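Predict the 3D structure for this chain.
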Amino acid sequence: MDYSRVRIITFFIVLAVWIGCSITIELSNISGWIAHSSLLHTLLQSIATVVALFTGSIALYRYYTGQSQIPMLLFIGIGFMGTTIIDAYHAFLTASWFKHAFPNIPPTVAEWSWLSTRMFLSILFILSLPAIFQKKEGAQASSKMIYATIGILTGVILIVFMQLPIAYPVYPDQLIARPLELIPGCLFVITLIGYLAKSPWKSEGLYYWVVLFLLTSACTQLFYIDLSKHSHDTLYLAAHFLKILSYGMAYNAVSS
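Done. Predicted structure below.
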């Protein structure tokens, strides 16, 4: 069986499904639906945090037990542990009980904390591109640098976005209601192009699932969250659901 052909077809099917779902939501009456409670959002964000934790843990377990010592696996493992921290931060800040306990928290903190997780992952995977070319023998030498890079990136993202008291720009009357979301979206696209061009994604499961992760993440930013007019509307919640699916794809990558 020609797996490379199947994977190419699957790539375009996934792309068509995500774009088609976005268009369907936009053209239907459900596009204006807004959840009146933050409970669903908190649930989705909590699930994303748990999946990120499992993904990072499995990747590090496989790497350090010798099952696979590909530098890319270490990069994903450490990266998703950092993602777990930032996603947990986002989940806590947007939970209804937290808002009641700390009423002075700015209302735009949900948008800024969401953007922080997307910026972290988009930058993380751009930095992972050199790992495509690293061999197993070079893994030990690069592990300290990977730890340091991701640790610094995690700290910088948290510090920068915690110090942003300014209002998050949302333009409900415009097609692109959240233009800042295009930044991580474009970074995901750039990284996706790099993986499509340079990684053995047609033949190796790890890189195939990373490609699908990047594709889904890019679509989340370019066709869902940036079009969301209000917090907790259909596209906003769909973006959180797609984020969970993308994390599941990353989990498949480190498990394959």
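The chain has one domain: 37-255.
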